[in-house]
Design goal:
globular, alpha/beta, 6 helices, Rossmann fold, glycosyltransferase, five-stranded mixed beta barrel
């Protein structure tokens, strides 16, 4: 595994002419941020040794390098999901490659269903903590010596980045929520009973990504900031039939606000 990670990193280093310490996983709601990257150069996932390929509609498949404001960045346009049939090692492989490339801070976004009755569709939720509800743990197996066998997760989402994001939201007049994200395997959207269970467990939002990447980033010593766009509601009395297209539509509507917060935060981090 370590050999593959290092092989992939060596390939990318041979193509890179910038030195980013900041990475972004352009999940749902952050696609337009790619348009703001300047001096950019791109590498398709299909051209990268050992890299999985995204199969989900709405998820492109390439790494983008360049500048966002005054910061050198790398961005993943298209992430990998457990429900696509990948193992957790494949889902999180790019994060380990980031560590080899010298990434220090990771920004992630996602679409999620809100289980908190105070939430509305289109709200942005800054992730303060998470619950891992996946059936396979991304650190299962032999420990890769990027971090300890039993890594601490008491601050999985960096508190200083959360503070700065709140400051930016206030400056820009953008409403943000705070909450706990629960990651599940998918690909089904939740039943009313499952939404109820996740709320009882303490989750404010539920989605099918993010948690594995954040666990591995923490193991690698990479600071994390995460944000969800609430694209549907799993609140009793407000649950309606939902489709991937409707989720995408709600995320697209929230995109300008999420992009503003992320752009500003990356440049102040």
């Amino acid at each position: 595994m370590l050999e593959k990670i290092q092989e992939t990193a060596a390939f990318l280093k041979g193509k890179m002419h910038t030195s980013p310490e900041t990475a972004i996983i352009l999940g749902t709601g952050l696609g337009s941020l790619a348009d703001e990257i300047t001096e950019k150069y791109e590498i398709k996932y299909s051209d990268i040794p050992n890299f999985p390929v995204s199969t989900v509609e709405g998820h492109s498949g390439k790494l983008i390098f360049g500048k966002l404001g005054n910061k050198d960045i790398m961005a993943m346009q298209g992430r990998f999901h457990y429900y696509e049939g990948y193992s957790m090692k494949e889902v999180t492989f790019p994060v380990r490659v980031m560590r080899e490339l010298g990434i220090k801070t990771l920004f992630v976004s996602n679409a999620s269903g809100g289980t908190n009755e105070a939430f509305e569709i289109g709200d942005l939720m800054i992730i303060t903590d998470h619950i891992n509800y996946f059936p396979e743990h991304p650190l299962r197996g032999k420990n890769i010596p990027y971090g300890p066998r039993f890594p601490d997760m008491s601050e999985a989402y960096d508190k200083e980045l959360i503070r700065k994001a709140d400051e930016i939201a206030q400056e820009k007049g953008i409403k943000v929520q705070h909450g706990i994200y629960i990651g599940t395997q998918g690909p089904t959207f939740e039943t009313p009973a499952e939404y109820k269970l996740f709320h009882i467990l303490g989750a404010d939002a539920v989605g099918m990504s993010t948690v594995p990447e954040v666990i591995v980033a923490n193991h690698c010593g990479i600071k994390v900031f995460g944000i969800s766009v609430i694209t549907d509601l799993g609140v009793e009395g407000k649950i309606v039939e939902v489709s991937h297209e409707e989720v995408q539509k709600a995320a697209d509507a929230a995109q300008p606000k999420m992009t503003t917060i992320m752009r500003e935060l990356i440049n102040r981090a």
